[in-house]
Amino acid sequence: MTASEQVLDSPEGWVADHIRRYVETGGEQGHEWRPGVFTLLLTTRGRRSGKLRRTALIYGRDGDDYLVVASQGGAPQHPAWYLNLLADPEAEVQVGAETFAVRARTAGPEEKPRMWRTMTDIWPAYDGYQTRTDREIPVVVLERV
């Protein structure tokens, strides 16, 4: 990802407003989305378009790693950002004012239950989202590179 490339904010509506405020204020607005619920901005490369796409996601921590959940509210298909990471795991993250490169991977079967609990402690609705879909909702580990 290069600084000269234009980033397209994938979502619409209130999420697009959230991302815009987050970027414009260096995370002063938007990092803490709700009391105790923090968001990061994830920029991926579109698997078909090759364009950079940015979305806001609730995150948790596992040591030095960041955790996000590919829930899409329990929709039957994975979110586009997750499919983009499967095609190209190199991405960029903004947490508050700090921006850095990450490599994404899907949590494995031994670690996922622990990481899922971490994320449902932050956003309990993830459990409900899982009951709405037949797919296994992934937990994605974002490791700094």
From TrEMBL:
InterPro entries in UniProt: F420H2_quin_Rdtase (IPR004378), Split_barrel_FMN-bd (IPR012349)
UniProt-recorded name of the protein: Deazaflavin-dependent oxidoreductase (Nitroreductase family)
Record Pfam families: F420H2_quin_red
MF-aspect GO terms: coenzyme F420 binding; oxidoreductase activity
Membership in a protein family: Belongs to the F420H(2)-dependent quinone reductase family.
GO cellular component: a single term: plasma membrane
Catalytic activities: oxidized coenzyme F420-(gamma-L-Glu)(n) + a quinol + H(+) = reduced coenzyme F420-(gamma-L-Glu)(n) + a quinone
Gene3D superfamilies, per database record: Electron Transport, Fmn-binding Protein, Chain A (2.30.110.10)
